[in-house]
Amino acid sequence: MARQAPLCDRLSDQVAPGLRGEALVTFLVRTIAAAAVAALTVVLAPVAQATTIERVITPKGIEAWLVREPSVPLVAMEFAFRGGTAQDPADRSGLANMTASLLDEGAGDLDSRAFQQRLESKAIEFSVSAYRDALMGSLRTLTENRDEAFGLLKLALTAPRFDSEAVERIRADILAALRRDAMSPSELAGRKWWETAFPGHPYSRVNRGTLESVAAIQPADLKGYVGRVLARDNLKVGIVGNIDAATAARLVDDVFGSLPEKAQLTPVPQAAPADLGQRVQVDVDVPQSTLMLGGVGIARKDPDFVPAYVVNHILGGGSFSSRLYREVRENRGLAYGVSSSLVPLKSASLFFVSTATRADRVKDSMDVIEAEIRRMAESGPTAEELDQAKSYLKGSYALSFDTSIKIANQLVLIQLDDLGIDYIDRRNGLIEAVTLDDAKRVAKRLLSGKMLATVAGRPEAATAAAPAAAVPAPAVRAQ
Fold first, then answer.
1. Average pLDDT, consecutive stretches of 10 residues, N- to C-terminus, the chain (479 residues)
2. What are the chain's domains?
3. What share of the chain is helix, strand, coil (3-state, %, to 5)?
4. Which of 128, 242, 291, 468 has the least C-beta neighbours within 10 A?
5. Where are the alpha helices (DSSP H) in 103-184?
6. Which residues form the Peptidase M16 C-terminal domain (predicted)?
């Protein structure tokens, strides 16, 4: 089955300059103390610095980025098709997610059981997940099983079965998850935020869909989505492992070469969040409330994105070291966790802050969060905060390259963000170049606007005795 996307959707999330996601960076290392990162940097930093990326153009014209690692007896491949859940028809929200969940449930002459047995017998890992702007897949295999793994992937992408048994089983799983979501304050706060901020826009829809829309999806819809979205012109590929360029080109052509040349994507209009400055309450009888604040962010290709990324780390992206964590949790004990994130989507650029707390502490939490946002907007970070943030962000980047699948993921996400094949070499220099004046100017630009707030939980008048748990942090992508 597909990996489930977190609250804000992996590719729409805490996107930092190069991983997102997930999109996958700051939150992958958020629980590691700065001292530990400094120690790890000595060991791991050469990994990123030594990563040599080859641009492979196959005979059929497909581009793939390759990192050779002959010492590792495996091959990892990540791939992505632009489109994602934004391509769901208005009355079939959840279609991309359901399609992704079914791609490993039988293909060609293999029904679901036979397909899964083939994967398991060779220890092949394969999954596909749907995010707002892309459908992302992952394949990992031992070198000795490479040809069979790529053959099964080809079947999954070009000849998915969508048998009724598998469709109904996956549908039941998704419907059960949606029913659970109906009592989850984090899911409800996120759902209400997107619905309110983007009325009538594809981004307003729930990635998993609704009970009604998922119930309406038919095999013909699933086949139609595959035919429209899985194509060569919107494909990005990253490969890492014990494989040479010629072999990689052959396998990529074998897997993807028979897909349609061009995708039939519905244009997704550019949009900005609506109802900024408003607060929306979603009543749900649970012991804690989730608070989600969102406003206008900064586009990934904007020159101010990297300074904004550094500023966000100082404000709320750096976990234990962030201002929000210190003021909300350590100084006042209002919540276990709080985080902020930059979310540059293809058709909108956003900034989020989220936390979870007791119903009677929502107002206090919001007051503290808004005060810290204002303080950062007015004064920016201190020189010491800036130096510490840059040191951390440069050092922790190496942690995105400590496994083959992470490297392959980075290769794809950098392509999706159009950052250039040399981005890994340039990334830390871009962060180091951020000056205090840059940080203060961009903090004012990013944080001076109004934000839409959604709160899911008991109304503030109803107190709850249970302590709050942290809101799951959005996954990240190109750091």
1. 34 32 31 31 40 94 96 95 96 97 97 97 97 97 97 98 98 97 95 97 96 98 98 97 97 98 97 96 92 97 98 91 93 92 97 95 95 97 97 92 93 97 96 98 98 91 40 43
2. 48-256 (3.30.830.10)
3. 45, 15, 35
4. 242
5. 112-121, 146-158, 164-181
6. 217-392
